Amino acid sequence: MRGCGGSETKTARRNCREWKEEKKVGSEEQGDPTLEFEWKVTYGTIAPLGVPQQGILINGQFPGPKINCTSNNNIVVNVFNQLDEPFLLTWAGVQQRKNSWQDGTPGAMCPILPGKNYTYRFQVKDQIGTYFYFPTTALHRASGGMGMIQIHSRNLIPVPFDKPADEYPVLLGDWYNKGHKSLKNILDSGRSIGRPDGIQINGQSSKVGDANAKPLFTFEAGKTYRLRVCNVGLRLSVNFRIQGHTMTVVEVEGSHTVQNVYDSLDLHVGQCMSVLVTADQTPKDYYFVASSRFAQHPLSTVAVIRYANGNGAASPELPPPPPQNTMGIAWSISQFRSFRWNLTASAARPNPQGSYKYGKINITRTIKLVNTRSSSNGKLRFGINGVSHVDAETPLKLAEYYGVADKVFTYNLMKDEPQEGNKVEVAPNVVNGTYRNFIEIIFENHEKTIQTWHLDGYSFFAVAIEPGRWSPEKRKNYNLLDAVSRNTIQVYPNTWAAVMTTLDNAGMWNLRSEMRERAYLGQQFYLSVVSEARSLRDEYSLPETQELCGFVKSLPKPAPYT
């Protein structure tokens, strides 16, 4: 049975779930279960803000099909590109252990050409949590092509909370009424795409009092639900809250957290978390509210949460947003610090999360990154430490694997410390990382706008966020006990953030701004982590079915790893 990711009727969806469960049971004796999907990527009309526009659909859906899987499942996704442009999907947060070939970034893979298909094959190895996929080509993310990835713990691994009555995906974020081609043309002309037009929740937006608003989901009184929430926007941090209800954070980007209770939560671009919500109020409608953070022109939207057998419309009085400006930054940093790793809980493996003593590992390298906004030849560019990345015709990973990296890019143009001045070099930005080294990355934001950063291939310990400039003495303020292991970190204006990770995953990994405008115009680089052993123990060989393009297309294939 194929195409389960895009089933449209309730009966078909139920049949699909039953098929997947049967497939899991039937596969376990032969190893880890495999889930197969067939996705057709097309254009179609959507209206997240009520204005009809061309969107990017997967199997006719926006948001796209949910991947609902379990730790160590093998995922097979056959993607048919029926757009008029090359297309790639990345699986943000899925670590692709030993397998950057499937990471879906232009530095790791050739794009899927119009009218062609490509089958992604990867394992969600030793991971649980909440993630999402999205397009990395052009500015496609501005028009859709995204969906939820939820990875459950295996049955034998205890979860530190009771099984909820149900789980609901919530993909929210800012939205532009201009299509991806128009936005890309603006950036290519050297200008900024400006501020978004609104905020959408699962492809819809609504106003208080809208009698035609469809419910986001339905609660039954007395039951507890898990909401998996991701900010899939292009630019703005968002705060979300639920009228009359508190939220208990239980998971952030693959880590079980200490279960604190919140009235509202900040979620920055590219970030995901899980919250538990108990339906303990009078049965009627309530508003789920999402509003922008740290934006000069505030935006907001609502969605209806409906109680089964409830009676009554949602109150027009919405829960207030948190403070803005300087007070808002302090409020948000305080909330970040309240997220703590649950040391006694197990995640994907039986051993407790706290058994990994990251705070006792010696740092072998410090990389300090400063983001900049500047111009090159009269056009807007964003950079890091004096380099503004541009994609090469030949994917960087392929050039490296074929031994012709010197014909495509230069290693280490970007230094470990920021350079003086505001001038940027526009070139492919690739930095060598030493396999299995334990490194520290400092993000320092001198700009007036908040930043969010993401690292493919790894999770890192988010050990600190503080105002001002970083210096080595600041290490005494790091959380070296229970910082959350995650894959994104926000950096507020005129602040710094520190993360730590072990480079134990060989491959070519993208470290990028999650603001798509900034990433598209250069605020990203690739971390090349090579195992000199060329061993299958450390990294998979180039897949036989991998598309080739650019400089390596006519070259003989290197000997595979052994």
TrEMBL record:
<dbReference type="GO" id="GO:0005507">
    <property type="term" value="F:copper ion binding"/>
</dbReference>
<dbReference type="Pfam" id="PF07731">
    <property type="entry name" value="Cu-oxidase_2"/>
</dbReference>
<feature type="domain" description="Plastocyanin-like">
    <location>
        <begin position="394"/>
        <end position="532"/>
    </location>
</feature>
<comment type="similarity">
    <text>Belongs to the multicopper oxidase family.</text>
</comment>
<feature type="region of interest" description="Disordered">
    <location>
        <begin position="1"/>
        <end position="31"/>
    </location>
</feature>
<keyword id="KW-0325">Glycoprotein</keyword>
<dbReference type="InterPro" id="IPR011707">
    <property type="entry name" value="Cu-oxidase-like_N"/>
</dbReference>
<protein>
    <submittedName>
        <fullName>L-ascorbate oxidase</fullName>
    </submittedName>
</protein>
<dbReference type="GO" id="GO:0016491">
    <property type="term" value="F:oxidoreductase activity"/>
</dbReference>
<dbReference type="InterPro" id="IPR008972">
    <property type="entry name" value="Cupredoxin"/>
</dbReference>
<dbReference type="Pfam" id="PF00394">
    <property type="entry name" value="Cu-oxidase"/>
</dbReference>
<feature type="domain" description="Plastocyanin-like">
    <location>
        <begin position="41"/>
        <end position="155"/>
    </location>
</feature>
<dbReference type="InterPro" id="IPR001117">
    <property type="entry name" value="Cu-oxidase_2nd"/>
</dbReference>
<feature type="compositionally biased region" description="Basic and acidic residues">
    <location>
        <begin position="15"/>
        <end position="27"/>
    </location>
</feature>
<dbReference type="InterPro" id="IPR011706">
    <property type="entry name" value="Cu-oxidase_C"/>
</dbReference>
<feature type="domain" description="Plastocyanin-like">
    <location>
        <begin position="167"/>
        <end position="309"/>
    </location>
</feature>
<dbReference type="Pfam" id="PF07732">
    <property type="entry name" value="Cu-oxidase_3"/>
</dbReference>
<dbReference type="InterPro" id="IPR045087">
    <property type="entry name" value="Cu-oxidase_fam"/>
</dbReference>
<dbReference type="InterPro" id="IPR034271">
    <property type="entry name" value="CuRO_2_AO-like"/>
</dbReference>
